[in-house]
Amino acid sequence: MGTQVRQEAPFTSVNGYAAGALGILLVIGGGLALRGFLVLPGLLMIVAGIFLGAGLFMLQPNETAILTLFGKYVGTDRNEGLRWAFPFYRKRKLTVRARNLNVATLKVNDRRGNPIEIGAAVVWRVRDTAQAVFEVDDFERYVSIQAEAALRHLASQYAYDEADDLAAGETTLRAGASEVAHALRSELQARFEAAGVEVVDAKLTHLAYAAEIAQVMLRRQQAEAIISARAKIVHGAVTMVDAALKALAERDIVELDPERKAAMVSNLLVVLCSDQNAQPIINAGTLYN
Fold first, then answer.
1. Whole-model pTM?
2. 44-71 per-position pLDDT tens digit
3. Burial code of 164-191, b = ≥16 C-beta within 10 A, e = fewer?
4. What residues does the Band domain cover (predicted)?
5. CA 222, 228, 233: angle at the middle one, nearest 5?
6. Quick one: fold of 99-209?
């Protein structure tokens, strides 16, 4: 049978201004009583005033106080300003403001086993103060370690970049930024849940191949870019040659036999697909000489 997770319990403290004013009045009244030789009442009033003063504490906006009594959790006060609670309550202040965690650049393997460098920035805040304090030993260290573990696991689930062995439309770390960020937030939230922490935002801040394979992968990417560009150039050149032959035939400008037509196609493709300026040779004779 699993242990029950401790949840935050609300605690409503007393207005500290009223309690403080009452404490000051009791101390003043006790002093006057002592001057009037009313020793016992005076002492009791002074002790009561000091007792009230000892229970005062102040909370800033988005700050909470976790109250415990001799080791027993009493509740969490989220009322800002000057507050008062039983002086024997131990009051531990805990901010619930959003915090930034910069996960240092990690060297991990992606889905295809390529070593990559990856880093992330995580925005988080404490949602349940009781879980954060009582369910884990050090919730800030817990968040830091779990964020690193989540980032390592995320990197192993995706390939760094597109490749021939990937399915069409498969998400990659470099191309699927929004999908990867959503997956990272989901994984972080699942890991932070035990500490009562919620993820506000999470995004990758660094993504690159590891130094030992960066140059090789750069050459591969350049080769893929060149092949893609050449494919587009060839496709465009073929379309232009086809249009030129059709225009010549429709307008009856010149009639070419299959051999001359093949020569014309070859020359046009060389001119259109060459990465250098073509040097034309003018035929001063007849078409068939």
1. 0.71
2. 999 999 999 999 999 999 999 999 999 9
3. eeeeeeebbbeebeeebbebbbebbeeb
4. 54-221
5. 125
6. Tetrahydropterin Synthase; Chain A (3.30.479)
